[in-house]
Amino acid sequence: MSSLRILVPVKRVIDYAIKPRVNKTQTAVETAGVKHSMNPFDELSVEEAVRIRERKVPVEDIVAISAGPTKAQDVLRTAMAMGCDRAIHVEIPTDKGEPDLEPLGVAKMLKAVVEKEKRNLVILGKQSIDDDANQTGQMLAGLLNWPQATQASKVDVEGEQVTVTREVDGGVETLSAKLPMIITTDLRLNEPRFASLPNIMKAKKKKLDKMTLQDLGVDATRRLKTVKVTEPAPRKGGGKVDSVDGLIGKLKELGAL
Fold first, then answer.
1. Which CATH class, in words, describes the domain spanning 4-253?
2. Are the CB atoms for 195 and 81 separated by under 8 Å?
3. Residues 212, 213, 219, CA angle at the centre, nearest 5°?
């Protein structure tokens, strides 16, 4: 069996514990002065890649990649502290301070990196918590014409064969495919480790390459336009009824019965 050459895309997003606020122009979420961290689904991807190696599966190396401004290097250092061997930062300076890429643009970028780095397994979060698109992994599989297994809750690698268990409405579904392959991760897959201080210090010495979309020959022109971003409508308070007849009457009034 050839060794696994794993690519793990990670994204810098507003920390999951922070309540996002819409900016004054209602064009996006306010990001200035807001705490950011690695996308939670991407933490699962990094953890799973490291666990695959810890299970004594032959792994040549694990490469983390992120696209965005200089601050995106923070999540790459975290990924290396968790166990990735090196990282690639695709520099995309923007006035907003956030990557201005759509899922298709990200998929095109990842395809170029997969081919440049000769990767044979890509493990990425099923979605990022900022746009919730849940599209990049599927688009990447389509561009590469590779098999894919989405929303993985368990991953087993044996030789060239990869078996993925995923939760579906009726229970679980098991998929099997040969490398190369795309896997997207779901929350039940694992519990990501904390990056220890010694590993954080070691990560500072690991290699971090920088490149641009132009270096990769990728056209990431946007095809979508955000018309307006607004806060969710406030929920209305509930009401009390004195009896079952009152409840039935109220449901009929609301058109629920």
1. alpha beta
2. yes
3. 165
